[in-house]
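May I ask for a sample protein chain and its fold as tokens?
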Amino acid sequence: MKRNILKCGAAVMAGVFAMSVLLAVPVLPARATETENNSIAPVSGNDAETNVMRSAEIRAAASTGTIGAPDGNGDVLEWSYDDSTQTLTITGTGSLSGGGLKAEPFESMEIRKVQFQDCKVIGSMANAFGAYGSDYNISNVEQIDFSGLDTSSVTDMHGMFYGCSSLRSLDLSSFTPVNVTDMSQMFYDCRSLESLDLSSFTTGNVTNMSYMFSGCNSLGSLDLRCSPSWLGRS
């Protein structure tokens, strides 16, 4: 009888000990975040989605800036990027020399289209959409709209589309490159380019056209009806 009582007491003590252990284990609170009044509130799924949307809005608002170099009057080209359409828009007046689209912040953007609006480029557009000797170019660009671009004051188009391997066509009917002297490597390695109409080009001042169409393996139509000035160029 005494032995049974001892066994029963031991069982009760073991149960009490187990209960105390359970009570000692802290209950972790729900993940929380500080609100504007510094109080703590749990983060729900909807709140997380809202934070993501706000972050996207902040990035979109920051997707503006300047590009290239100022012209003689100190004016500079401006750009804006729409992530929803993957479109880069360039406006204003200035220079695009030095491969203006080959570095940050454009390097991390998924640019598919570039458009010019009320834009005038002064001086150089050399390597504007590609970069000679660089590992980076905007090779994912599929469309470039030049209808809002004035090129009458451009003097250098060397390597302008170098390595734009996703371009299938280019409408350059608005181009008036009357003062351009260098068109070398202009379409170098545009391997997807299927047709090209250069009938609006005036090339009387061009002195260098070396490797202008090198690597354009898909080019099936090339219109050079512009003027006899094409003849004899190299």
